[in-house]
## 1
Amino acid sequence: MLPLNSLPRYLVSIVRRNSNGFPSEAIHSPDARFGMSRRSHLARLRQQSPLILPSVLSCDFSDMRGEVERLETAGVQALHLDVMDGNFVPNITYGMPIVAAFRKLTQLPLDVHLMIENPERYIRQFYEAGADIITVHEEATGIDTANVLQEIKNLGCGAGVTINPDIPVERVLPFVDTADLILVMSVNAGFGGQTFNPVALEKLEALRKVGPPELLLEVDGGVNLETVQACTEAGADLLVIGSAIFNQSDYGAAIDQLYRSAQVST
Ligand code: DX5
Ligand code: ZN
C-alpha cells in the first residue's frame, strides 16, 4: 500500500475515513469527494476545533491560486466563502462560479456563507459548485428555515443557520438539534473589516449551554488578536477571520499568532 504522505490530501482523508468504517467503495468512486463524504468533514472540524477559517472575501482575487497555496501552506483546514447579493446585504461579492473555482483549486472543505435573500432557491447550485457546508440567514429564508436546513442535509452538505447581531438568539434556538452549525455574526453581514460586537459572546454562551456537543458554533466578523480569545472562551469552535489574516504579509505567522491568542486560559 502507498504511504499516506504520497497521496493527495483528499485521498488521505478518504483512506483514513475508511479505516474508521467508511464504506470501502467510496475509495474507488470517482464521486468519493462528493455526496455523503461532504458531511464527514463536520466531525473532523469538530475534532480539530478551535479552528481558524480564513474569510477569502479579503483575498487577492487576481491570484486565487497563489492565495489558496499560501493558506494551505499556513496549515489552514477549511475556507470560508462569503456570498452577498446586494439585496439581503448592501454589498455584492461573488456567486457560484467563484465557489466552483475555489473547488478546483483546493480539497479543503468550503464553508459557504450565503448572505442572500431566499437562499433556498440556490442551495442546489452551491452544492453543485462544490460547497461542503452551506449556511443561510434565518432572516432571509422565504420558507420554513427547518426545511431549508433539511434540503441542505439531503444534498449531503453540512447545514448551517445564522443571524445578524440585532436578531435575538431565540430565533436560532429551534435549530440547535437540526443544524450542524450555528454561525453567530459579530458584525452586520455585508463587509469585512468591521468592529466586533460583543453581543456575539452572549449568544455563543447561550448556544453552547443548550446545544448538543456535536453542534458546531462559528463566529464571524471583527475576530482578531484582541477578540479571538473571548470567542473561544464563549464556546466558538470555528473562528472566521478576514482582515486580521489578509492584512498581514505572512499568513502563516498571522494564523499562528491568532491560534496562540485563541487558547482558552485555564
Ligand atoms: C461579513 C463576512 C465576514 C467577513 C469577515 O459579512 O461574513 O466573513 O469577511 O471579515 P473580518 O474578519 O475582516 O471582519
Ligand atoms: Zn462570513
## 2
Amino acid sequence: MASIYIDETAGSDETGKGTQEQPYQTLAFALYSHSDALLLIRKDPNSEYEEPTQSALKKAKKGADGIEKKRKKAEELAERDAQQKKEERERREKVLEESKKIVLEEDSSLPAATKSKIVNLAELRGKRVRVSGWVHRLRDQKGIIFIVLRDGTGYLQCVLSGLTAQTYSALTLTIESTVELVGTLQPVPEGKTAPGGHELSVDFWQVLGAAPGGDDAFTNRLNEKSDPSILADLRHLVLRGETASAVLKLRAALLNAFRDALVSHDLIEVTPPCLVQTQVEGGATLFKLDYYGQPTFLTQSSQLYLETCLPALGDVFCVQESFRAENSHTRRHLSEYTHLEAELAFIKFEDLMDHIESIICETVDRLLANPRTAALIQQLNPGFTAPVRPFMRLSYVDAIKWLNEHSIQHEAEDAEGNVIKNDDGTSKMVDHVVGDDIAEAAERRMTDILGCPIFLHGFPAELKAFYMKKVPGAGADGHVFTESCDLLMPGVGEIVGGSMRISDMDELFAAYKREGIDPSPYYWFTDQRKYGTCEHGGYGLGVERFLAWLANRYTVRECSLYPRWPGRATP
Ligand code: 4AD
C-alpha cells in the first residue's frame, strides 16, 4: 500500500504531493485525495511521522466529505455559468442575425440636413444636420446608444434610439470607428450636460470605417496605465486623446497669437534654411550630415540669417525648427524643437528686454481674450493667470549672491570636470562663484522660490556664444560680461535666450578667433558689419518650453507633435 505523508506545519494542500519531500498539510485533504493509502502524519518537521489516531481519522473523514461537497458545488456552478454564457452567446448571435435584416435608409421627406463641423453647430440648433467624425466614447444604456463624436473641432453627444440603435452596425460599433450621423440638433434635456449644451437625435447614420474590437481594440492598445515607452511608440494614437489634442490646439493658437503680436510690433516673418554650414551655439551640439559631399549641419538657430534680413526687411522673426545634438534626457530638452526667433535693429539692451516682455504678455493676453483658447488654458492649467508686469530683472552677479544667501549650492568638480565625492560617496557641494554656469537644478530652484518670470541678465562672456556684445570695461574679478538675458519661468526654467550682438567688425573677428571659428564660411554674416552696421539684438524662444509653462505640462515632450529626444525619432 502506498504511503501518503502529511505535515501539519510545513505541508501544503495546494502545492503538496503527499510525498515525504512535499507533504500535504491536512489529514482531511489526504483522505479525500487517497482514501485507500497508508496515511502518515506529523505535527512539524521536527517530529516523527506516525499513523493517525482513530479519532483523528474520524474527524478527518468529516472534513473529506466537506471537501467533496464543495468540489461538487463548484462543478455545478461552473456548469451553470458555462450554460448561461452559451445561452447569452446564442441569444446575441440571434439578435445580431436579426439585426442584419434592419436596413436604415435616409428619409427623403425630412428637411435636408446641413453638413457641419461640430464647432459650428450652435447656429444650427433645432435643425437637421450631418456630421462626420470618430467615435470618441460609446455607451449602450438599455438599448439607447450614446456616442460622443469627435471631429477635431469639438465633441458632440449623439443619441441612437429605436431602429437606429438596432442595426448590425449599431450592435457591433467600436470606439475610434469613423461614422456619419444625420439627425436633429436638440438642446440637452433639463438637468443633463453635454459638450456645447446640445445633442444630436440621430435619424440616419452609417459606419465609414470600422475600428477593431477584441484584443486589437483601441482601449487595449492604449490606456492610462500604459508604459511611457509604449505611449511614445503609439504617439499617433495618443494624439487622439482629450489632453494631448488640447495641448496641440493650444499650441496652434499660441503660434497664431505670437505671430499677431510680432506683426503688430512691425516685425515681418521670414523662413530661414534648416540646412546650414555655420554654427551659432557651439560646435558640440551640431547634427552633421553629408550634403552632396560637403559637411553640412542641421540648424541650431536661425539667428545669423535673421541678422542678414535687418537691412532688407527691417525687424524680422521666424518660427523654425532648431536641432540640438545634446545628450540631455531632461524634461526640458528635445533634439528638435520649434524655435521662435526675432531680431531687432537700432535698439539698446533695455529695449530688447522690454520687447520680449511685451511680446510674451501680449501673446498671453490675446490667448486669454479668446474664449476658446482661454477654455483650453483653463482645461490644461486651471487657475492660470497672466504674468504680472514688469518682469523681475536680476543680474547674473546678483543671482550668484542670491543662490549663496539661500544656500543653493552646486556639485564641486575637479579640473577635468569630474564630480568630487565626499568620503560617504555623496557629491561634494560648494557655493557658487562669479564665472560659474548656473546649472539647471539651481536655476530651477531659484525660479520656483521667486515664483515669477525673471530676466537673468549680464552673463560672463566665457559662458556665452561668440556673437554677444560685451558690456564695456571689465567687471568684477576681471570678468567680461555680455549684454545677454535668459527669461526664466516658474516650473520650466529658461524659455528665452537673447542678447545684443557684436556690431563692430574688428570685435567680430576677435570673437571668431577666440572661439577657434574659421571666418570663411561666415563671409555673408561678416558682410553685415561691412555694409552699414547697426546696434541690434534678438532672442530665441523655445515654443515647447513656453507651452509647457502655459499649459502646465510636466515635460516639453508633451508639447511637441512628434517629439524627438536622444534615441527617439519615431513615429
Ligand atoms: O539659448 P539658446 O541656445 O539661444 C539661441 O539659440 C540664440 N541663437 C537664439 C537667438 O538669440 N536668436 O536657445 C534659445 C531657446 C532657449 O531659451 C530654450 O527655450 C530653447 O531655445 N531651447 C530648447 N528647447 C528645447 N530643447 C532644447 N534642446 C533646447 N535648446 C534651446
